[in-house]
Amino acid sequence: MKKHPALLERSTQPIIQPDQLWEKGGRISPVAAFADEASDDLLLYYFLRSRRGPQDNALCLARSSDGINWTKPDYGLGDNIVMRSCGNPNAWGEFYPSSIIRDDHEPDAAQRWKMIYWDCPDLKLGSGICLATSPDGIQWNRLHSHPIITGANDAASLIDMYPGAKTPFKEGTHFIHQQTFKHNPNLPTERDNLTHMHRVISVWQSKKFDGQWIGPVRILEPDTKDAPDLQFYWLTAFKTPSGNYGGFLNCHHTIDQTMDVQLVSSKDGWLWTRENDRDPILPLGPRGRFDCGLVISIAQPVIWRDRVFVFYQGRPTVHDAQPRYPEEKSQPDPGIGLAQFSLDFMKFTV
Description:
The protein is mainly β. It is built from no helices and 24 strands.
């Protein structure tokens, strides 16, 4: 396993904070980033977990000409919110836009932008993964009045498949990689919220984005080379210029409740190889920094101006919301961080 290029730059403090009136007191995390084809700006979708409660959570859109300084434009209602909850309470989880792609192979311009999100559009059916599309990334259309996948949880990501790709489910157009569970009575559970349940990664596949989804099939889980408390919390797949897939494997360490990000690669989206000698590509920040307790990246990387930009959520608290270093008199504010790599970051040998 080759070592991947070192970071060129990484945030020492958040590049975006919840500083607008409608964001005050909330917590934000990146969902997806894109290069704007018209202006050459960066676009960043981020999730606002509102202090007022889950039904006020929102998907917001910011833009930048340098990747460091960000504006939050008015998209019609006096704020930069482009999607809100349907308004129903969720029995499990909360309204959460978890993945957005710009599908270059989509012939219908009205559906070029695609999203999966967690919500509860029908109280009788319960919460689950829902679908939405957009012609411009701003005006979003919910495709169904029901979830397409219920059960498990909202830790899921979407990727469009390479045309003609063959998998155990034969041909398809899209994958959803989702966190699912495996019973493990030997898992250290001193501070974990799922007793004896081990988080693993499963895949769903469709022949059409708004058609039938087949799965889940468990495809990635910790092995004997991993620490016994390691869990795989989230896999975000992304395409590489070589025609393979890379992936951010968000790792949860149940004993100390920290989270960091490893790098994986795949030819087909099913069989994954652990890269970088299993060392985190996005490790925790040093003590006292905003990202010293939890680092998680669910946004696909974006190539922009000869660099690879990776946005992530950084917190001084860990998964169960406790401070990583409780003895510190003051805790830094969490926020969105940015890691910048050279273009060699996208060169995988699968």
